[in-house]
Amino acid sequence: MLNETEIHQLAMKEVGDHLSSQGFDFLAVNSQLKKDPQFVCLKDQKLHFIVVRGCLYPDNPKKFDVQLMEQVRDQGIKYKATTYYAGVGFANAKDYEIPLTKNDSYAVNFDGLQIME
């Protein structure tokens, strides 16, 4: 079964690929688990902070720690940055009820960035 660090690494890759495809330029990437924000990016000459969290089915990837996100958002305001939450869920592609291991193909539940206002 995947451990917390491996889940985080998968989530970072999914979000990083999404950000690249959306035209974000990376200023800083912090791939350490729970070292927030994970991505500091520029797009359209504006600063963006992105917090990444990964989880396994049946956990809901859209559910986030409100207190943490308020802290990161407040930090972002100091730098005139927009803060986002990027929750990514993973499941075994063959059967969501089967544990996900390194060798399994997986399904991804990622609906993009959630802006923190």
How would you characterize the overall build of this protein?
The protein is α+β, with helices and mostly antiparallel strands and 117 residues long. It has one domain: 3-Layer(aba) Sandwich (Trna Endonuclease, Chain: A, domain 1). Helices cover 26% and strands 34% of the residues. It has helices at residues 4-21, 66-78, and strands spanning 25-29, 39-43, 46-56, 81-92, 106-109, 114-116. Strands 1, 2, 3, 4, 5 and 6 form a 6-stranded mixed β-sheet that branches. Strand 2 and strand 3 form a beta hairpin. It is elongated. 31% of the residues are buried. The model has no long low-confidence stretch (mean pLDDT 97).
Number of domains: 1
Count all strands and give the number: 6
Give the percentage of residues in beta strands. 25-35%
Instruction: Report the principal-axis shape.
Output: elongated
Instruction: Say what the CATH topology is.
Output: Trna Endonuclease, Chain: A, domain 1
Largest sheet: 6 strands, mixed
Number of helices: 2
Summarize the topology.
Blueprint lengths: L3 H18 L3 E5 L9 E5 L2 E11 L9 H13 L2 E12 L13 E4 L4 E3 L1
Parallel strand pairs: 3-4
Antiparallel strand pairs: 1-2, 2-3, 4-5, 4-6
In short:
The chain has 117 residues and is an alpha+beta fold. It is 26% helix and 34% strand. It has a single domain (4-116), classed as 3-Layer(aba) Sandwich (Trna Endonuclease, Chain: A, domain 1), CATH 3.40.1350.
